[in-house]
Input
Amino acid sequence: MPGGEPCPGENTMPSSRAPGFYNWPLEDRLAWVVDWANLTEEETSILRGEAGLPLEQADRMIENVVGRYPLPLGIALNFRVNGRDVLVPMAIEEPSVVAGASFAAKLARADGGFRAEATPPEMIGQIQVLDLDDLEAARAAVLAAKERILARADEVDPVIRRLGGGARDLEVRALPETPAGPMLVVHLIYDCRDAMGANAVNTACEALAPLIEEITGGRVGLRILSNLAERRLARAECTIPADALAFDDFPGERVVQGVVEAWAFAAADPYRAATHNKGILNGVDAVAIATGQDWRAIEAGAHAYAARSGRYTSLSTWSRDEKGNLVGRLEMPMAVGTVGGATRSHPTARVALKILGVQTARELAEVMVAVGLAQNLAALRALATEGIQKGHMALHARQVAIAAGAQGDEIEQVARQMVAEGVVRLDRAEEIIREQRSKGNKGAGE
Ligand code: MEV
Output
């Protein structure tokens, strides 16, 4: 089996570098990851798909179950986050995402990898209060009873309390003009520790409803978590030397300038920002899916946060520092957990978390935001230079070949021919398959 490359000066720390990994036979790749993350035989067979989510368990997770839906699980290499090398499991159907993240993470290693941090895991629960004659008086009454309300919220989940989490604060917002008339919104700020927290927050909000009605004299409507998790943020930063960005006919300075200009486009234009942020979420979602997170919550939070100024914009920033290096930063809400939900109950999510080696939701958030920044860099670098299609086509062509019915060795042959012709389309793939098969048949008959 090909060996991984040790990190210079860091022989004791396992390295996330494995040059040529994509060319290794699948079994060698798996064996390397098994060794790296010390996976058991059972965990290995879960990755192989031989074990995994049992149908009976799936049947208990959602309604009307008739089967399972597997996705490819790839490993993004080269990541170093806060000085620690990590292998990043990514579950995604889109080609180029895992390769893009690995490539950008390699560039970031030149300056020590990604620096990342996360705020305390505070989520916001909303309680809607209607039928109030005096919003200001109701607001004052809620704030005056803050300690009593927080104490009631803390009775709901003694486990989170014991772990150091629980109710932290209250905010009260008046919405004097809505299509349904004036209303008050009470925000419960709740520290969810290592849980994503939707269940804990929703339970606490529901438990508070009678008390809020008593205090305000109003009628409570909705009691639900907000996905605009603006108090649970993750941030990552990286610095890429211009030299490291040079390739083919593109000098490093030109690539730096191209990435900065690409970011400026997204900063100024919501049409571009939506795609730019989608690129970030390609990375974040893939880790979220691999580790059993509620990726819809992450998506909702990301886009709402991107529009918090009233104008939708880029979640990341890219600039050139005084030495000419490219500097990237990403800040976004990251409502993730390492306990609860599918994180522990889904066998593959459990293995993915073990591969990542993260102990807390905070560490997971830090890795995920770094992956988002890496993914963004990979996309902008390609878009600002040779274009996205060149790297994408070879992988995309394989999917088109499979969709057209190619099998075994045919897949590679059909894909290669389409790329060479510059026509990657289902109808062309079907034609090539027909041509090849009829040649094969003739050959067999001769
Ligand atoms: C494609 O899935 C993602 C990109 O469109 C992101 C971007 O344009 O920045 C390549």
